[in-house]
Amino acid sequence: MYSDQLPVNIGAKILLLQDVQDPGNVGTLIRTAVAFDFSGVILTEKCADPLSPKCVQSTAGTVLSLWIRRTSRYLELIEALKHRGYYLVAADLSGAENLSVLQCQNKLLLALGNEASGLSRSILNASNHRLRIPTIREKAESLNVAACGAIFMYLSYHKC
Q1: Dihedral, CA of residue 6, residue 11, residue 13 and residue 19, to nearest 10
Q2: Closest by CA position to 16, among listed 104, 76, 93, 106
Q3: What is the layout of strands, in order, in the sheet containing 13-17?
Q4: Strands, DSSP E only, in 12-86?
Q5: Is the dihedral of CA 111, 12, 135, 131 positive or negative?
Q6: Which of 48, 89, 117, 145 has the fewest CB atoms nearer than 10 Å to its CB?
Q7: Helix, strand, or coil here: 136?
Q8: What pLDDT score does 142 carry?
Q9: What is the pLDDT of residues 81-122, one digit of tens each?
Q10: Rg of the chain in Å (alpha carbons)
């Protein structure tokens, strides 16, 4: 799990979590990734430990159903995946509302950021597309990272 290397069989859809600190959110995102056929998860070293008791409990036993990499070299893994044809979609409150972009990718890398600060400028700049969920901002400026991830992963499950 604590590796800087991608597995041999990467799969078609990968989730990237940057500095998501709440173990409940990390576990819920892993569980949702499994439910929508994601093959793996890349976590930054500042993410909650995916094997902590609260995280494992939140996965409802799915934590062993995909590969997990937790590393400080996540930017290098992003570049390696993009070089292999993965399309990086970054969740961003300032992004476009073109949700269909998730449905048209053969190889998808979906990036979600920290609960308070979102994704870093490095990931946003590396992204192929910045995406946001349309909400009524006067009532709720943003969604919880696990809710946002669940919506994006559900949309990625349905093809063009």
Answers
A1: -20
A2: 76
A3: 67-71, 40-44, 13-17, 108-112, 87-96, 129-131
A4: 13-17, 40-44, 67-71
A5: positive
A6: 117
A7: coil
A8: 82
A9: 999 999 999 999 999 898 889 998 999 999 999 999 999 999
A10: 14
Question: Each residue of 122-158: pLDDT tens digit?
Answer: 999 999 999 999 888 889 878 899 999 999 999 999 7
Average pLDDT score over the chain: 93
Closest CA to 23 of 73, 65, 63: 63
CA distance 160 to 87: 15
Rounded-to-integer distance, Cα 20 and Cα 26, Å: 7
Question: What's the rounded Cα separation, in Å, for the pair 140 and 158?
Answer: 27
